[in-house]
Amino acid sequence: MSLEVRLEGLSAGYGTGAPVLEHTDLEFAAGSFTALLGPSGCGKSTVLNTVAGFVRPTAGQVTAGAEPVRGPGPERGVVFQHYALFPWRTARGNVEFALKRLGLPRAERRRRALAALAEVGLADGAEKYPAQLSGGMQQRVALARALAAEPEVLLMDEPFGALDALTRTRMQTLLRELWQRRGTTVLFVTHDIDEALALAGRVIVLGGSPGRVLADHAVPAGPPDPDLRSLIARHLGSE
Ligand SMILES: Nc1ncnc2c1ncn2[C@@H]1O[C@H](COP(=O)(O)OP(=O)(O)OP(=O)(O)O)[C@@H](O)[C@H]1O
């Protein structure tokens, strides 16, 4: 289950500030995994937030499949760096709560929550509260919460940025497996070139103000390509 995402002539900004994006065109094929890299403030999160429907474009439009994005929707799941779990709900309770807006019956919410927690390797932690879970486990709950709604697009904003190196590598492996199994379209914002190259089939470098596409590379399958890495590093350093 996946949708193509298109940004057409997209301009966006905040209040009376300078535009963050201007006339940006980008297409993300259904089922593709794309990493967005770029210096702080170039508009990576703004791209994600317009696709999520949190930020309304000032011009142009975003479409997910055939439908223009007019606001948040369950077919577009979001995972942020900070998991934003309710501390007074268990892992299962957090996932179930997110399913309420889908209007699912209670038993179905429970079934889906437990299935999603099992899918992220947290079957044993379902009845634990966030304070009883490590950072990596909390991020698994956040991932389960997004997956339980069975999204066709997954929007991830530096989701592993706050994790230690080992946990981060484990989460990357988990995410690759989930993506291979589900085929969801993934847009993944990161500051880390190696993370982008390890995960994505395509790496886009944004830069400038307003932000624009500085580079757009397909990442070949197989072992990391040092030439591609240094090319992308040069684009990143060119700001
Ligand atoms: N809610 C907001 N209100 C006002 N300005 C904002 C808001 N969110 C972002 N901005 C501004 O928009 C610009 C782009 O921000 P954005 O978060 O999209 O960049 P980014 O590339 O994701 O940065 P980072 O890597 O630091 O997360 C920045 O100048 C930022 O200060």
UniProtKB/TrEMBL annotation:
Fetch the SMART domains from UniProt: AAA
Q: Which InterPro entries does the record cross-reference, listed alphabetically?
A: AAA+_ATPase, ABC_transporter-like_ATP-bd, ABC_transporter-like_CS, ABC_transporter_ATP-bind, P-loop_NTPase
* Keywords carried by this UniProt record: ATP-binding, Nucleotide-binding, Transport
Q: CDD domains of this UniProt entry?
A: ABC_NrtD_SsuB_transporters (cd03293)
**PROSITE patterns according to UniProt:** ABC_TRANSPORTER_1, ABC_TRANSPORTER_2
Where is the ABC transporter domain positioned along the sequence? 5-233
MF terms in GO? ATP binding
One Pfam family in the UniProt entry: ABC_tran
Q: Tell me the protein's name.
A: ABC transporter ATP-binding protein
